[in-house]
Every structure is written in C-alpha cells, then in structure tokens.
Amino acid sequence: MSRFWSDHVAGLSPYVAGEQPKIAKLVKLNTNENPYGPSPKALEAIREAVGDRLRLYPDNDSTALRAAIAEHHGVKPDQVFVGNGSDEILAHVFNALFRRQGRMLLMPDISYSFYKTYCRLYDVPAELVPLDDDFGIRPEDYAAARPAPIAGVIVANPNAPTGRALSLEQIDAIAAAHPDAPVVIDEAYVDFGAQSAIALLGRRDNLVAIHTFSKSRSLAGLRVGFAIGSEEIIGGLNRVKDSFNSYPLDSLAHAGAAAAIRDVEYFDRTRRLVMATRADLTQRLEILGFKVLPSQANFVFASHPDHDARELALALRAEGVLVRHFSQPRIDQFLRITVGTPEECELLCETLVKIQTKTH
Ligand SMILES: *Cc1c(COP(=O)(O)O)cnc(C)c1O
Questions:
Q1: Which of 144-148, 156-160, 328-332 is predicted with the least confidence, judged by mean pLDDT?
Q2: Same domain, yes or no, for 195 and 308?
Q3: What is the 349 CA–ligand 1 centroid distance (Å)?
Q4: Residue 240 counted as domain residue
Q5: Percentage of residues in the chain with pLDDT exceeding 90?
Q6: Where does the Aminotransferase class I/classII large domain start and stop, copy by copy (predicted)?
Q7: Are the C-beta atoms of 27 and 13 separated by less than 8 Å?
C-alpha cells in the first residue's frame, strides 16, 4: 500500500510470469516458448524494416498485417484485431466486453491465470466452473441456465496448463447456449493439434478466437497477437484500444509478423516437429512412471505418484532444467513441461532418472 497509489492498486493480484533466467546453459522448458527459431523470412523482414523509416510512427491500423492475417484465415480484415501480445488483447477483451452491470463472467476454475488478474483489474465478477475429475472442461456446465444473463465466457482451448482440448462441436454448444454474450476462446496453443473456433464464425457472431505469435510462430519476443470475431465485437475492441494506445505494435513487429504468417511451409514443418516430440516425450515420461494428461499443446502436464511435484521442479532446477510448477489447489502435484527439441527432452528425461535413483 502506498499513499501515492490509486485506490484499486493495492487490491490487484498481478500475473506471475515463468522465470526468464539470466544465466545461459539452462534447459528452458518452463514458459512454452518454441524451441525452433522464428521463420527465416520473418527475421529477414524485420532486418529490412530496420532503417531511417523508424523515425515515423507505425501504421496505427496495422493495415498490412491485418490483411495478411485475414487472408490466411479466410476472414475480412475488419474481423481482425491485433495487439501487443495476446495478453494485451485479453486485457482489452475484459475491458471492452466483460464489464457488464450485474453480470458474471464464466471461466474454468483452472485455466490461464491472467484471467483472474484481469477480473481484478477491471472489476469483472467471475463464476469459476470446475473442471471434471480428468481436468476436462464440460461444455454442459457452461450451457446450463443461470438466474441472470452472463457477461460472457472465456476458455482457453487447448486449456492451460492442462493441455486438454475441446472439439469444435463442444465450442459450438457453448456459443449456442449464450447467443447474446461474447464467448471468447483463447487459442494460444491451437496450432499444436486442436481445431480453431474461427471455422464457426459464419454461424456464431458471438465467438471470438484469440491467437498469439509467441508459441507456434516462435516470436514471443516480438509481442504480437490477434483476435478474430464479428465486425461488431472487433469494433468494440478498437474503441478501447484507441482510448488506451493507438500504436501498440511497432514497425518491426508489423514486418516480422506479416512475413511469419505468410511462411506456411516453415510453420507447418516446425509445429509438426513439436507434435512428434510431444508424443515421444509423453511416452518417455509414462515409462518413468508419470501420469501425463493427453495434450494438444506444446507442453505436457504430468504428475508422479512417488514424487512431490514442487520438490521435483526444484531438483530439476538444481540440475539446470527449468519446468513450471503451480502452487495451486488441484494442480500442485503436476509439472507443466514445455516440449523442447528432442535433445532437450532427452536431457530432461535423463535428469529425471538421475533424480529418481538419488531419492530411492
Ligand atoms: C502464452 C499465452 C498467452 C499470451 O501470449 P502472448 O501473445 O505472448 O501475450 C495467452 N493465453 C494463453 C493461454 C497462453 O498460454
């Protein structure tokens, strides 16, 4: 608390990001970054954008980038909203869509923890809908009637940090149950094996899909995300964005992201590599005695019957391998492990064997 702060600041609960270590040489499997570099074409486009033109403001409408995203996904440019990472887009979504007098937002009890942070920041009351015993989202829980209209729904698909995905039919059922409320699907990991709700936009004008360049496009450092929805919903996001920061994306981000989304060949090759490594890693972990949830993301969520997850994470860190542990009820016996290169995953498994033989 400070006498200089606005009234609400003391009550915020800021998001805690995974560690970005200052020392090199660590095997970094803790923040779901892509182990393969960005598309060489994206890097080339960024290099070309470095020059005298940086003295000019960037295009505040991100016209070329939105056109490239629209073309890739077969929608109109006015259905595309871009932001400084999808976290910023989520902030605008909470601000522009979910702040409704007397209405609750529905979201899973276990999901991306930034949602709860934004609920606090924007004063959005939420009803937490429990995942089932296998950590799955039950669409019927969201479709059930409620005493008052809802402010909206937000789910991550695949969910974080479980990696489990809903089918398009299940997403459609949630959207159909609330035709007058925005149903927002955070698709940060969708390119690793799930189906995008973008395919449903033709019949569900209340759906919004949010994507990021940080995971499947390997550009976490560039900070670019996008949302696709009806022009009506995107119009609301634009009003909030232009009341906050007209230039959220810089010129280098515009150039790199547009080139990345056009490089379909590189995108498909690298995400297939990640998916293949995920299958191998899952199998290896199961042989080591882990229970691994079925994942459609670039990470796996795993628990071991004989080892405390927090202690395992610490022991791995001492051996130079970073994974993510959440001290949160229901999931505090799980580790979230990013799918790295085959070599990194091999090193992780060797280190786990070393730890297991030490503690037995
Ligand atoms: C990584 C992640 C984001 C944030 O992505 P940025 O575009 O890097 O801000 C959003 N939602 C989920 C579920 C994520 O895992």
A1: 144-148
A2: no
A3: 26
A4: yes
A5: 93
A6: 25-352
A7: no
Question: How far is the centre of ligand 1, averaged over its atoms, from the C-alpha of 188 (Å)?
Answer: 6
Specify the 3-state DSSP secondary structure of 197.
Answer: helix
Task: Look at ligand 1, atom 11, and give the residue with the nearest C-alpha.
Answer: 188
The atom number, within ligand 1, closest to the CA of 212 reads: 7
In angstroms, what is the span from residue 86 Cα to ligand 1's centroid? 6
List the domain range (segments joined by +) for residue 290: 9-37+268-358
- CA–CA distances in Å: residue 310 to residues 313, 323, 328: 5, 10, 11
Which of 90, 215, 223 best tests ligand 1's pocket when mutated (most atoms within 8 Å of CB)? 215
- Quick one: pLDDT band at residue 19, thresholds 50, 70, 90? confident
- Do residue 193 and residue 300 come from a single domain? no
Instruction: Based on the fold, state whether residues 58 and 24 are members of the same structural domain.
Output: no
Shared domain check, 131 and 32: no
Report pLDDT digits (tens) over 64-109.
999 999 999 999 999 999 999 999 999 999 999 999 999 999 999 9
Distance between CA atoms of residues 293 and 220, nearest Å: 25
Q: Angle 31-249-95 (CA atoms, 0-180°, nearest 5)?
A: 75
Token pair, residue 301, equals 């969520």
* pLDDT at 298 exceeding the cut of 90: yes
Residue 214 alpha carbon, nearest atom of ligand 1: 8
Ligand 1: centre distance to CA 217 (Å):
12
